[in-house]
Amino acid sequence: MKPFVHQALASRVVFGAGSLQQLEREIDALGATRALVLSTPEQADAARRVAELLGARAAGIFPRAVMHVPIETAREARDEARRLGADCAVAIGGGSTTGLGKAIALDSGLPIIAIPTTYAGSEMTSIYGLTEAGVKKTGRDLRVLPRTVIYDPELSVSLPIGLTVTSGLNAIAHAAEGLYAFDGNPIVSLMAEEGIRAIAAALPRLTAAPTDLDARGDALYGAWLCGSVLGAVAMGLHHKLCHTLGGSFNLPHAEVHTVVLPHALAYNAAHAPEAIRRIARALGTESAAAGLFDLAQRLGVPVALKDIGMPGDGLDRAADLAVQTPYPNPRPLERAAIRELLQHAFDGARPP
Length: 352
Ligand code: NAD
What we know:
Elements: E1 12-15, H1 23-29, E2 35-38, H2 44-54, E3 58-62, H3 71-83, E4 88-93, H4 95-108, E5 112-116, E6 127-132, E7 135-140, E8 148-151, H5 161-179, H6 186-208, H7 213-232, H8 237-249, H9 253-268, H10 273-283, H11 288-298, H12 315-323, H13 335-347
The structure holds nicotinamide-adenine-dinucleotide (NAD).
C-alpha cells in the first residue's frame, strides 16, 4: 500500500426515486427559508414545478442557465437572488445549471442545493468555471461545493437517449482518469471502478428502455461515484484534450468526452497498466479503450470528432494547445503522438 492523502468533501447526498419530495426538508436543514430556483430555458418547466412544490419557500425562478456560465448571466442571477431576498439556491439540471449555482455561491456564499438531471458530476466537486470575454476560467473553491445533492432518478427519465449515453460516458471519463491520477488513493479507486461498472451496465438497459427507473437509478448512482472521483483527484490528458477541444472549437461537452476517451486511454495504456486493467474489468471487456469505443458505437452515439463539428484543419492547433500547460498525466505529452491521437479521434478509428 502506497502512502496517500484523502480529503473528503463535506456534502450531504439524498438518493432515491421520488426524493425531490425531500427538498423542503433539506432547505429547512440548511436553516434557509427562501430558495431561488435555477434551470436552463429548456428545463424551465422543471424549475416551475420545483417552485410550486416549495410554495412560500420559493423566492422565484431564474431559468436562464447556459453552457460555460457567462459572467453576465452569473451576475444577473446573483442580482436576482439579492433582489428577491433568497437565502439559498436550488439548481435543477445538468452541469450548466449547477455551474450557475456555483458562480452565485463563489461570490455570495449562498448555500446551493443541486438536483442533477444528467450524469456530468459537477454537483460533487468544488470546481467552478466562468466565461469572461470568451475565455473560460476554472478554479477550485470550497464555497461552490453544493451543500446538499438530491439524486432523484425520476428526473433523468426525460434526458434524451443520446445525451443519456454521452453524459454517462462523460462520467466514466472522470472515473477512468481518477484511476491513474497522481494523487489517487484506494478509496477513490474503489469509487471509480464501481462507478464505471454501474454506468456501463445501465446504459445498454437505458437505450433499450429509456424510462426504466431501476436503470436510471443505477446510472445516477454511478454518476454520483464518478463525480466524487472528479471532486477528489486531479484529471489528466483526457480532460485536458476535452477542455481544449470544447473551449477552442465549441464542440458539445458530453460528446467530446465520448469520442476522445478511448483514444486518451490507448495513449496512456502502457504507462498506467493497473488503472487500465481495472477499467477493463469494470466494463467486462479485454481492452479498456476498445471496450469503451465499442460501447459507444453499439449505443449509437458519435465516435468521431469529424461528426461532432470538429474542423479537420483545426487538429494541428488543437495538438499545440493540448501540450501547453499540460495536466499531470501518466505518459508525458508528446506533440507528435498527441497529433496522431487527435487524428484517430477525428477519423473515428477503433483503438486497440
Ligand atoms: P447541460 O447542463 O449543458 O445540459 C444539456 C441540455 O440538456 C440542457 O439544455 C439541459 O437543460 C438539458 N437537460 C438536462 N437534463 C435534462 C433532463 N433530465 N431532461 C431533459 N433535458 C435535460 O449538460 P451537462 O453535460 O450536464 O453539463 C455540461 C457542462 O457542465 C459543461 O459546461 C461542463 O464544463 C460543466 N461541468 C462542470 C463540472 C465541474 O465539476 N465544474 C463537471 C462536469 C461538467
